[in-house]
């Protein structure tokens, strides 16, 4: 039966190695929150090969794998330009710098995100302006954005939280009306689609992260900016190397923000199975969601009809989070909270931000969200064990 269940989901051309450890009873479950080891088992040979090649040619900084990866990712997303950078955080920083965002400027974004989104705005001396989120997707509420625009607004930065984009067409329309740039923080959504377009290519600029646990992760830090405008792309390429226009000739204040050749080699090795992984994420997410939706007191995550979600996080909502976390922990099911404190309530940010209206939804969901184990190598039996444990925990 296990063979049958796995038959349709073996990575193309790879032998799937079974995982006996999770087939025992609930008390002995050893479930990974994100199982990078299972992934490595199916891609070890190409990863080793790619890494060896870099060690042999020795061009560790901006070597041939860097542009090879950038061209592959341009083809994948459909964006005109991919500029690889040191991390997702660098991607946001360099994108904002390329737009000239600085002191006195405002950038409209969401308070319900990883800190880097607002951090880079503040670091440049600008002010994050927080707009509340939707209660179901937890993404920025596009309808509230226009009222937050002032003469100081420079850009809108929606975050594609948990792996699903916000209402990008509505956001792009408001931005175009007011002459603003839209930067998608796509750190969690690489591979997702919005109206048949790939995340990272659904607005003027898209920024992603290759942090190991993201949908497309390397084995260290990495990130990329996707941009349609050639001039902006050129500016970003210079900004990532100390604002250098040519060797030791600096026309801008930049940063050291390149992605290593070795990390690009890892991404190249992973790209051959990435389409399969995205399909699996979507398939697993659908089954998981249907199972979770049956449990009283648990709000299952939702995906809008015109987009797909790559489930960087599979995040449910509940009013009984603390008890459920504890019960799941007792039976070996790891969980995480993305995110427990909205950014306007963080000590370092309270006085550095402006609130556009109340942020009651962000405050409410931050108390209710709970992420369950999710990755493309999650088998149905493990999913059933997790959901069973969740059902028992929710009833207690
Ligand atoms: C992970 C993440 C980042 C930062 O990416 P790093 O590669 O870790 O710097 C930024 N924004 C969001 C929404 C993220 O999830």
In short:
The chain is α/β, with parallel strands linked by helices and 396 residues long. It contains eleven helices and 14 strands. A hairpin with a 2-residue loop joins strand 10 (244-246) and strand 11.
Mean pLDDT: 93
Number of domains: 2
Q: Give me the CATH fold name of the largest domain.
A: Aspartate Aminotransferase, domain 2
Q: Superfamily at the CATH H level of the largest domain?
A: Type I PLP-dependent aspartate aminotransferase-like (Major domain)
Q: How helical, in percent, are the residues?
A: 25-40%
Taken as a percent bin, the fraction of beta residues is: 5-15%
- What is the CATH first-level class name of the largest domain? Alpha Beta
Radius of gyration: 21 Å
What does this structure look like?
By secondary structure, this protein is an alpha/beta fold. It has two domains: 2-34 and 272-395, Alpha-Beta Complex (Aspartate Aminotransferase, domain 1), CATH 3.90.1150.10; 40-267, Type I PLP-dependent aspartate aminotransferase-like (Major domain) (Aspartate Aminotransferase, domain 2, 3-Layer(aba) Sandwich), CATH 3.40.640.10. It contains eleven helices and 14 strands. It has helices spanning 2-7, 36-57, 64-77, 88-98, 116-123, 168-178, 230-239, 261-293, 321-330, 360-368, 380-395; strands spanning 81-85, 106-109, 127-130, 153-157, 181-185, 193-194, 197-198, 205-209, 223-227, 244-246, 249-250, 314-317, 354-355, 369-372. It has an eight-stranded mixed β-sheet, sandwiched between helices. Helix 2 packs antiparallel against helix 8, helix 4 packs across helix 5 (116-123) and helix 9 packs across helix 11 (380-395). The longest helix is centred in the C-terminal third of the chain and has 33 residues, at 261-293. The radius of gyration is 21 Å and the shape is globular. The two termini are 32 Å apart. Residues 1-8 and 13-26 have low confidence and may be disordered. The structure holds pyridoxal-5'-phosphate (PLP).
């Amino acid at each position: 039966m296990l063979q049958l269940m796995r038959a349709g989901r073996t990575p193309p051309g790879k032998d799937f190695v079974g995982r006996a450890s999770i087939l025992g009873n609930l008390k002995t479950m050893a479930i990974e929150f994100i199982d990078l080891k299972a992934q490595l088992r199916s891609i070890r040979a190409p990863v080793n090969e790619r890494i060896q090649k870099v060690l042999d040619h020795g061009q560790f900084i901006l070597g041939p794998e860097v542009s090879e990866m950038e061209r592959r990712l341009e083809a994948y997303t459909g964006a005109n330009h991919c500029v690889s950078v040191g991390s997702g955080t660098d991607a946001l920083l360099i994108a904002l710098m390329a737009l000239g965002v600085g002191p006195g400027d405002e950038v409209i974004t969401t308070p319900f995100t990883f800190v880097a989104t607002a951090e880079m705005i503040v670091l440049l001396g600008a002010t994050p302006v927080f707009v509340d989120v939707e209660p179901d997707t937890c993404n920025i509420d596009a309808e509230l954005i226009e009222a937050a625009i002032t003469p100081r607004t420079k850009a809108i930065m929606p975050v594609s939280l948990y792996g699903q984009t916000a209402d990008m067409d509505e956001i792009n329309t408001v931005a175009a009306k007011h002459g603003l740039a839209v930067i998608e923080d796509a750190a969690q959504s690489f591979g997702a689609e919005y109206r048949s377009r790939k995340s990272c290519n659904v607005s003027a600029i898209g920024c992603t992260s290759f942090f190991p646990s993201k949908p497309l992760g390397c084995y260290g830090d990495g990130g990329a900016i996707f941009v349609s405008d050639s001039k902006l792309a050129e500016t970003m390429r210079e900004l990532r190397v100390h604002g250098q226009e040519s060797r030791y000739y600096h026309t801008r204040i930049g940063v050291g923000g390149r992605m290593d050749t070795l990390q690009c080699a890892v991404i190249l090795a992973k790209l051959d199975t990435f389409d399969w992984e995205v399909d699996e994420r979507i398939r697993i997410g659908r089954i998981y969601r249907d199972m979770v939706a049956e449990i009283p007191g648990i709000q299952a995550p939702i995906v809008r009809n015109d987009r797909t979600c790559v489930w960087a996080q599979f995040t449910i909502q509940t009013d009984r989070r603390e008890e459920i976390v504890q019960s799941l922990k007792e039976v070996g099911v790891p969980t995480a909270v993305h995110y427990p404190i909205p950014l306007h309530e963080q000590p370092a940010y309270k006085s550095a931000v402006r609130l556009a209206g109340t942020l009651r939804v962000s405050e409410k969901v931050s108390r209710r969200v709970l992420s369950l184990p999710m990755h493309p190598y999650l088998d149905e039996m493990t999913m059933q064990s997790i959901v069973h444990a969740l059902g028992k925990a929710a009833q207690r």
